[in-house]
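Let us work through a complete example step by step.
Step 1: write down the sequence.
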Amino acid sequence: MAANMTAGSATLVPLMAIEMEANHAAAVDAPAEGGGDSSVDDVAFVRQATESSRKEIQSARDALLQLKNPELIRVAEMLVNDHSGANQRLSKIAEAKQWPLPAPQAQSAPPSGTASSDFDAKWTAEMIAGHERSVALYNAEAQSGEDKDLRKYASETLPTIERHLAELRRLQK
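Step 2: predict the structure and record it as tokens.
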């Protein structure tokens, strides 16, 4: 099959791998409850979205102590605010439906000392990669999630994540 790939299809393979990974994780990590419960994929989305958002919030908070570029500091503050609000909305949906939320992870101590000279670039690249995964996750839920409230949440939140991604890409050097 690899021999038949064209230049165009080669760019789709990583996207397909991300989607397959997300679908595989949803199927593997979802609780194995009775029969045809259609909320299994939605429950996996809640877990993945919550964990991803928490990581981004923590990374942005930690980065605020070390970022040098004022525009990146502004973006990090925006990420903390936007992702915190999105997590609150997602938690309300999950609680109303009695879906489990992942337990909060123990917060690590923020980095100490001075940041490396390439900290801004490394952090930006890390945030871009995370937001690319989030866009794929939220887009999949918005298009094919089982629960209408969760689809609506994903559809309403997706433009904010895409805006974050565009801003991070703009600032990447």
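Step 3: interpret the result. The chain has one domain: 16-24+39-103+112-171.
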